[in-house]
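Hi V.,

You were right to ask for the full record rather than a summary. Here it is.
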Amino acid sequence: MEGAGEATVRVLAEVLPTLLPAGLERRAELRTLGVGRLSLGEAIDRLAGVERSPAWWYRLYDSLAGVDPDRLQGLPVPLAAGSTAGSPRQVLLPGPADDGPRPAALARLGLKVAHPEAAHPLLEKLGALPATPRAVLRTPQVRAAVAESLEGDGYALRDDAPDAEELAELVLTLARDAELAPGDEPWLGALALPDEDGELSPAGELVLPGGEFASVMREGELAAVDEEWAGRWGEQPLAACGVLARFTLVRATDVVLDPDELEPRDTDFAEPDDVGLLDAVDVWCEDVLDQLPDGPVPPVATEITAVRDLDLVDDDRWPEALALLSRPPLRDALTQPVRVLLPTAPPSPSGRTPPGGCAATPSSTAAARRGCAPPPETRCSPGSTTRWTPPVSTTRWCCAPSGYVPRPSPCSTSPAVPPNSWTAWPNRTARYPPANCTPCTACWPSWTPTTSRSPTSCGPWPTGS
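Predicted structure:
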């Protein structure tokens, strides 16, 4: 046998009895006699279908510990269910006996769990995964079982698949051992749990009896988890599976403020970034749009953080609810403003103002917000030695000298500008004002000033770039 150490040949000889001892493959006499040669990869291929004890497989893995993993990808793995996997990939390696669910329980979900006596560290190098609670929860088999848990046990092809309550026990155990927080795995909200009437309901539609949210909720709005289950499992695993124990936050980024689009998503569970779950969010959106200038496309809220289910609060329980909402992180959702990005558009060649673009003259606060002009109520200060460049416009806003007639610019078309008022200097022509003329200045605090130089003599504006 070529490419294998003495320990490996010794173990394989128990199932391949024609193997010669290691070291003889270099003897010229064997070549003369025509003795066949077997590579390590070919020997591994012959192990398919071999039935040996888990302890034998462990000895084989131990003898292969120093071999290149690329040569061992087809190595069989004995499973806790009694069958054998064709390779280590997608096989779960069980931990200590008291750490998480038993391998037999995981095997009932269709998971490939290595036999505990064959679980060698080499298998992890070959693609097997430690059966940590979080890793087990994220397997496609567990997620599919949770999604279909309300429909009985038809989610699995195995005859011994657990029923809904057995599945709930298994998932709650994993959520507890993984120390999941609410919202870490939002799809767990579809897990079927027994409610106060003994019926199965999705976890995301149940409340924790005696919890903070249940204490301020109107009676009868949502069913509660079965009291025996709530007392046995406690808040942490149940809340991790979507049961409402406290007020819940919705956090979303880059939300298009279109009332017609702010609808709840069509899913079996509540997603933590679904703003459609917020009560009357479309009405709030319309109120926001009424305070903003019209544009070619809807504005975008950079981040929205809000509290869910406020519409379920009992009218007589609002003092207690407000006390709960005054604590972080709920307080920030009520006090932090929402930042909105407005669309911008280049000025129209015809001189008319496009939607969302610069106004013809700096005459409105809306135009100032778009970066076209300083606020109209702000007067400039003659004699300043600073100039300002707005973030959006292609012009600089400057304090006009007495009697100055500006060049045509995107945001100012008037032939003359009163002294000490704002006008736009086109960037492509404006450099610096003459020494004895009023230099550029601004009083708009959000723009960054830069020091201005002055030529040595007064004269017309330079025409260079």
